Amino acid sequence: CDLANFTPFPDEWTVEDKVLFEQAYQFHGKSFHRIRQMLPDKTIATLVKYYYSWKKTRSRTSLMDRQARKMAGRGGAGEDGAGSDMASDMGSNSDSDNEEKKEGGEGRNLSCSNCSVACSHVQSTPKGSMCNTCYTHWRRTGNLRPTVGPTKPRDRQLLLRNKRKPPRGMYVNHDDLVAMASGPTGQGEQMLKAMDREIVSLKRQVQNNKQVLSSL
């Protein structure tokens, strides 16, 4: 084996890689360049792609905790062992669901009262709950942050009709927009490319599933 020229495949995620990612995310948030310092064999695009897949299933229960619970649940062999594993997994999933609900009370399914963009955290003000961007503008100026540019009189009716409604199927998240806008040069483009690749992959999966169903 030519170890000198060996390069690990960046899309392969070991348990150690996943644990390191969780730890790095807790320290650095969405700063993928800093996360990459702990996972130097991963590209920024790979980290972004993994982040969005991990974000869908993540909970306060870390990967290390889930692994420990699985090991603790293996108290016997055969059917007893299988029952212990199943009970452990169900308990872990139940705990995760409860913790997700608690977390949801703090920051999920929230939106800014000014710009109406979904966000994970809002600031309470006399003007309503605001995202960090609108809150900072209000604290600095005392006025609500403008969310649209100057409009001509003939455009006002159209503006009111489509006010604050993104295209059908599009969901805007304030935290993701901030990560794209405030990150290093090229980070936003890498995030979009990663999402494009994910869409292509999901479309292929749908096509494969259709072929399997048609052959049954």
At the first level of CATH, what is the class of the domain at 107-158? Alpha Beta
The dominant shape is globular
Report the major sheet: 2 strands, antiparallel
| Number of alpha- plus pi-helical segments | 9
Please state the structural category. Answer: mainly alpha
Quaternary assembly: single chain
In the predicted model, the low-confidence regions spanning at least 5 consecutive residues are 1-10, 76-107
Alpha carbon gap, first and last residue: 44 Å
Average pLDDT reading: 70
Strands of the widest sheet, in order across it, are 1-2
H/E series:
HHHHHEEEEHHHH
Give the % helix: 55-70%
Radius of gyration: 23 Å
Q: Which fold does the CATH topology of the domain at 107-158 refer to?
A: Erythroid Transcription Factor GATA-1, Chain A
Question: What features would you describe in this structure?
Answer:
The chain is mostly helical and 216 residues long. Among the domains are: 15-61, Homeodomain-like (Arc Repressor Mutant, subunit A, Orthogonal Bundle); 107-158, 2-Layer Sandwich (Erythroid Transcription Factor GATA-1, Chain A); 165-208, no CATH class. Helix content is 61%, strand content 5%. It is built from nine helices and four strands; from the N terminus they run αααααββββαααα. The strands form two sheets. It has a two-stranded antiparallel ribbon. A two-stranded antiparallel ribbon has the order 3-4. The longest helix has 30 residues, at 78-107. The model is unreliable at 1-10 and 76-107 (pLDDT under 50).
